[in-house]
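Sequence in, structure out. Go.
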Amino acid sequence: MYKFVTGFFGVMRLSDGAFIPDAPGNRDWQEFREWLAKGNTPLPPDQPSLDEVRKSALAAIDAAAGRARARYITIAPGQEGTYLLKAADADRYKAAGYPDAQIASYPWILAKAKAMTPNPGAADYQAAADLIIATRDAWVAKGAAIEEVRERGKAAFAAATDTAGIEAARDAAVAELDAL
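Output:
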């Protein structure tokens, strides 16, 4: 007697608990195929518990939110801190009235302006600061929209009372995040 196993490409032989992979050259797999040919049917896989389904749904929604974020921001070690420092520098520079004479005090603005123009001047520093601020503000709006869908999806599957409801809530949230 054999049983299908969720997440495994093969079967489990119940007599000894051996996992038999779907591999045509495997002798145990050939025996399983012969057993099937005699009209036998493997048992279905065990159904995951509601807690396991919820954990899986949570992971799927978080992964979809991560994919959505990655379409708009760079996902790399240290990049989040860089974005925050650039935005803070741009906010300080703007609040100070865009003082080009003190540009060395605003290293992130200077770096952005130099990246945009080989020999930047006052207008370039202001443009760099304004671009950083505009980019941050656009991300805040998009990031909030992603977070709203993520949180709404979690709330929907948390309220579900069965596997079908959890999976439907997960699928809806993932589809909405994939569309953002």
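Check: The first helix runs from residue 27 to 37. The chain has a mean pLDDT of 94.
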